[in-house]
Amino acid sequence: YLLAIASPTHPIPASCYYNGWARESWYANGNTYYGYHQWVGPAYGGPLFFTHCSYVGFDPRNKSDSYCNYFDNSRNISLIHRAYSMDNPHNFVGYSALVWGLTYSTNPWGGSDHSPTNDNGTITPTAALGAMPYAPAESIATLKHFYHVYGDRLWGPFGFRDAFNLTESWFSQTYLGINHGTTVPMIENFRTRLCWNLFMANPEIQPMLEAIGWTISSPPPTSPP
């Protein structure tokens, strides 16, 4: 929706943002899970790719629409997922503060949009790693745990394999390009904000935000929280 509204040649009306995307019945949330408030999105945040794909280029820091600040919402969803793994209501093997991250990936039975409401014990490394701009300490600790504890069962020539399920003693032998395709830029956004800076420098972005009525607060910090 943001890109369509920002189009310099064939834009859609700014009203489409609230009349279309943001009017969906599941969009507004307002609940608190594990002590973290979630303003928008499905229960417990859904798969973590929701907090990755939309923000590879679009910098959510210090930006709000009439619902929320989207950096804060994505950070809380990341921490909700981690807290869910710590709680481990289904008693899957291995879940902990260092073993978390549910998103779309392969699993022992095929593939699924894994989330706290659709969980079969399958952890996807890129889910927690892609949360690095939002929850850097938690994400980096999990990255180190995955690398040092599971070694070559999980790490291969293209980085972390797609997923693993300790309850089923299963480690994927494949890599999913779309997961790495969002995770690597999100790690770079934590490190240098490169993708955010390049995308937000496009001249169409600021007028689009103004047309929708987004609020931009004080400049973001020199490094992500």
Q: What can you tell me about this protein's structure?
A:
By secondary structure, the protein is of the alpha+beta class. It contains 8 helices and 10 strands. The strands form 5 sheets. The chain has a two-stranded antiparallel sheet with strand order 1-2. Strands 3-10 form a two-stranded antiparallel ribbon. The longest helix is centred in the middle third of the chain and has 18 residues. The two termini are 27 Å apart.
- Share in helix: 25-40%
Number of helices: 8
Largest sheet: 2 strands, antiparallel
Q: Give the helices and strands as they follow along the chain.
A: HHEEEHEEHHEEEEHHHE
Distance between the termini: 27 Å
The whole-angstrom Rg is 18 Å
Strand content: 5-15%
Structural class: alpha+beta
- Poorly predicted parts: none
Strand order, main sheet: write it out.
1-2
The chain-level mean pLDDT equals 95
Assign an overall shape: globular
Count of DSSP E strands? 10
List the helices and strands and how they pair.
Layout: H1 2-6, H2 15-19, E1 28-33, E2 36-40, E3 63-64, H3 70-87, E4 104-107, E5 110-113, H4 125-129, H5 136-150, E6 155-156, E7 159-160, E8 164-165, E9 170-171, H6 177-191, H7 194-200, H8 205-212, E10 215-216
Antiparallel strand pairs: 1-2, 3-10, 4-5, 6-7, 8-9
